[in-house]
Design goal:
The protein is mainly alpha-helical. The chain has helices at 3-17, 27-51, 89-120, 123-130, 138-161, 170-184, 201-222, 228-242, 249-270, 277-292, 297-305, 319-330, 349-369, 371-374, 425-437, 449-456, 464-488, 523-551, 553-558, 565-588, 606-618, 628-632, 642-655, 664-672, 682-696, 707-721, 723-733, 747-753, 758-781, 787-801, 839-848, 853-864; strands at residues 53-57, 60-63, 400-402, 416-418.
Length: 871
């Protein structure tokens, strides 16, 4: 490849892999996302009626009154009686049904939208028309075989499309949606060589014949017919269909030579002296269309190449998809394609649908149909596993100990916990969940771990980001494409612009690019074409950026005034999401033919980039085990981060009827692990858990917290576990929120998101630390922390500024050993000998008699901290 080829490669690649030319650009992505949006919304409304509750936020549900349901649907109201926060097996099956309800609609809507895209362009009708024929021409058989490949791919795309961005499965959504489009639209997917083009044989043949005229006119000027056209025809048509017969380089070279002979024979026949080049080109094109086009190619292949059309590999434009279709055929889910008889290209929709129905029926019968299963449900877990951290580790009996001594100032506890001796955090949390879930043994069978994870990973909200990004892409491509079309006088498909259809205010733009021949072989023609593709694609990029910005317009408002640690962390994630919006926009301009959706690379893979954008703006973790820690810095497979997590914890602790909810330790590890990775210990998990129980125990009675006390209980939980209460609790536990390094948050997704915004991150870090230092005085005045503990927090802030690690604080009440010396500020060490007043008790009392201390803490940030960076 010479330097000229290197310079041309981006333009060639964009022209080859950009979005296909349609009356509505990127309409397949748009209609698929639109159908998903509509289907999700409709089934979401239905589940509100059927279950009688609506999820307002994670863990928070509001009742749907019967009188608010349309009269025709009232017979369905609360037909499934469900306690959303109960962990009994029965209610966990119901929870799974509640989670999957909208996904069913989303999958059906996405499938319908995808099919409608090809009804609009007529290919669905064409495909149905071929079904009425017993035998097909070679090109029709290639079309039918490739179109049939789209059905199983479309169904798989719909299945994976029902999962949220946090699931980590949006990569798989794009992995199947793109080849579904390519198969139905007759595209060839880029596999390392632009010479192969981006069209399947049945579309490449007419395209090659249309391009023939330029080569003929060039031959009239030079006196020699270039073999480039013949080489392209062999590469783009003969190789996919007969590559299994033209195996050797010699056979392939002979095929090009034969084609060149056919072209030269026709050229010599019509190249009459004095005849205009355009007429010669038209005559040659017409002649070769009869020989190599639909209806004539079979005979030419037989007589000139010795190739039997019945032995062609139809539908082989994309060999991997062809192999997948044959794999399905081997399982009886589809039929292998052949060139001779159409019925062998039949769609796999029915058998695959039957298989999916059978699987779904089995799950429903197992979970809710039998009396035994009706007593079965799973805990309110946010993990993929029966035990929260390790899918392949079986639950084992664990030793339990009853709390007989205080834990750093907390009251004596009656709650059971596993023995922590010699255990890692993962092991301890797993054992705790297993122990607590044992209370449901004998009460039925819970959903399998995989189904639990699938339920938690479902789209929990409308897929607005996908839809608005798709709308933006289509709009941007359409606007920019039309502008470029008017400027050049031709569309990207080579068709001339109808001057009468150009708006009056744009008439001045028409034809400002002079001397341009679409499909011409001159360098000038090629570069103008590349520029036109560039403008078209840049419009799509801008559209995606605006679309995803609109989808999350409320996030900036929500995060604009941070005060406490759970306010700042979503704001950091939001800043990182802005970087991902650019990566999603850049990757979104590449179409299915580009093949870039095969590579899980940020800025190249649209599904991955858009998922990272969504999870950043939603402040959520990836859930897929194995990737969650790397991608998001998560310690469990829950999507929850701190702000949403403490909100969920408050509702979960109040609404769960059990005396020993199964997931408190798991939630503690989920929320604290990512931000205190190097400092978190089993003791911290125990102390956090005890804090939850200390609040619950104020209200809990046999059967759960009474409804009339839940509002007060929720207020008390929020007093302790949100805002200043959470900061005090963390400090009391020996976890310094001032040492959380914002630039190190959120794993690889955060590191990439930090690119270009490191200054913003640092300003946010400084603002939070100054605000926290100001609040320490309030906390001391309120008797929530001691002077020594406040000094320890300040010393930690200094340590992080000097990139040093802070030592743990001194033991409290029950221990009198000297505290370790802190590296950053030895003078700030403390050896607190007297018991510190229990901050949890103090916070609980504050909730009983609300005063303005929280407002004072909030205002301290405004007085001391610099303004946070604008969103």
């Amino acid at each position: 490849m010479g330097w000229k080829d290197i310079l041309e490669f981006p333009g060639k690649f964009l022209a080859n892999g950009g979005h296909a030319q349609q009356d509505i650009p990127s309409q397949h992505r748009l209609l698929n996302a639109g159908g998903m949006f509509a289907g999700w919304w409709m089934m979401d409304q239905m589940r509100h009626i059927v279950f009688g509750v609506k999820m307002k936020s994670e863990g928070e549900y509001v009742e749907i009154k019967r009188e608010d349901v349309p009269a025709a649907l009232r017979f369905l109201h609360k037909s499934i009686d469900w306690d959303p926060l109960s962990e009994t097996p029965e209610h966990q099956w119901k929870k799974l049904a509640y989670q999957l309800f909208p996904g069913v609609g989303a999958g059906l809507g996405a499938t319908a939208g995808s099919i409608y895209a090809f009804q609009r362009n007529g290919r669905e009708q064409l495909y149905k028309g071929t079904k009425t024929q017993q035998a097909l021409s070679l090109l029709d058989a290639d079309f039918a075989a490739q179109y049939a490949q789209s059905t199983p791919l479309r169904l798989l795309a719909a299945f994976f499309g029902t999962f949220s961005a946090a699931s980590g499965l949006t990569f798989m959504y794009g992995f199947f949606l793109n080849p579904a489009f390519a198969s139905a639209n007759g595209a060839k997917i880029f596999a390392g060589s632009l010479a192969k083009g981006n069209l399947a044989p049945h579309k490449a043949v007419p395209a090659q014949l249309e391009a023939l005229g330029s080569y003929v006119q060039e031959a009239v000027k030079t006196g020699k017919v270039s073999n480039a056209w013949a080489a392209q025809f062999a590469e783009r048509i003969l190789q996919p269909l007969f590559g299994h017969e033209l195996k050797s380089p010699e056979a392939q070279a002979q095929a090009v030579k034969t084609l060149q002979g056919i072209v030269e024979e026709s050229y010599q026949k019509f190249n009459v002296s004095g005849k205009p080049a355009k007429e010669i080109a038209e005559a040659v094109t017409k002649d070769l269309s009869a020989k190599l086009g639909k209806g004539g190619i079979e005979k030419t292949l037989k007589t000139h190449f010795g190739l039997d059309a019945k032995k062609a590999k139809v539908g082989n434009a994309n060999p991997l998809i062809w192999q997948f279709q044959n794999f399905l055929a081997s399982m009886g889910l589809a039929k292998a394609p052949t060139a001779a008889v159409h019925k062998t290209t039949a769609s796999a929709a029915f058998p695959l649908g039957a298989a999916a129905t059978a699987l779904g029926t089995t799950v429903v019968i197992d979970g809710m149909g039998s009396k035994k299963a009706m007593a079965a449900d799973h805990g309110q877990t946010l993990s993929t596993t029966e035990t929260p951290l390790a899918p392949d580790v079986p639950a084992t009996p664990t030793e339990t100990t009853e709390h007989k001594t205080p834990i750093d100032g907390l009251n004596t506890s009656k709650h059971m916990r596993p023995d922590a001796t010699g255990k890692t955090l993962d092991e301890y949390v797993r054992d705790a969940v297993t122990m607590h879930k044992s209370q449901y043994e004998g009460k039925g069978k819970s959903p399998p771990a995989l189904l639990k994870w699938m339920g938690d990973a479902q789209l929990a909200v409308l897929p607005s980001n996908r839809l608005y990004s798709a709308i933006g892409l289509t709009t941007g491509l359409m606007v920019a494409g039309n502008m470029a079309k008017i400027a050049t006088g031709y569309g990207l498909d080579g068709k001339a612009v109808d001057a009468a259809k150009v708006p009056t205010f744009l008439q001045g733009m028409k034809g400002i690019v002079k001397d341009y021949t679409p499909g011409g072989l001159r360098p000038r023609d090629r570069w103008i074409k590349y520029a036109q593709w560039g403008v078209y694609s840049l419009g799509g990029l801008a559209g995606i950026k605006l679309g995803t910005g609109y989808a999350y317009k409320n996030v900036k408002e929500k995060n604009k005034d941070p005060h406490y640690i759970e306010d700042y962390l979503p704001r950091i994630s939001m800043h990182q999401g802005e970087t991902w919006s650019w990566l999603a926009s850049v990757s979104g301009i590449l179409g299915s033919a580009s093949g870039m959706w095969l590579l899980p690379v940020p800025g190249i893979n649209y599904g991955l980039s858009l998922a990272a954008r969504a999870t950043s703006m939603q402040d959520r973790n990836f859930m897929l085990g194995g990737l969650n820690e790397v991608m998001s810095g998560a310690t469990t497979t829950s999507f929850l981060r701190l702000r949403e997590g403490v909100n969920y914890l408050c509702h979960y602790a109040v609404g769960n009827p059990a005396e020993h909810p199964a997931q408190i330790e798991y939630l503690a590890y989920t929320l604290l692990g990512p931000i205190f990775k190097d400092q978190l210990t089993v003791e911290h998990i125990q102390r956090f858990t005890e804090a939850v129980h200390e609040v619950r125990d104020q209200f809990w009675q046999e059967g759960g917290i009474p409804k009339e006390k839940r509002k007060e209980a929720l207020r008390t939980m929020r007093e302790v576990f949100t805002g200043p209460g959470l900061e005090v609790l963390l400090i009391d536990m020996g976890l310094n929120p001032g040492t959380i390094a914002f630039s190190q948050l959120n794993g690889v997704m955060g590191r990439i998101g930090n690119v270009g915004i490191s200054n913003k991150i640092q300003v946010e870090q400084n603002a939070y630390q100054k605000g926290l230092e100001g609040r320490l005085e309030i906390y001391m005045k309120q008797g929530l922390i001691s002077q020594e503990r406040a000094d320890w927090v300040r010393a930690g802030i200094e340590s992080i500024k000097h990139r040093e690690k802070q030592a743990a604080p001194a033991p409290q009440a029950q221990e009198t050993t000297p505290a370790p010396v802190m590296e950053a500020a030895p003078s700030a060490t403390f050896t607190e000998k007297a018991p510190q007043k229990n901050s949890i008790e103090t916070l609980i009392k504050r909730s009983e008699k609300p005063d303005d201390w929280r407002e004072a803490a909030r205002l301290s940030k405004e007085n001391l901290a610099p303004a946070a960076v604008g969103g």
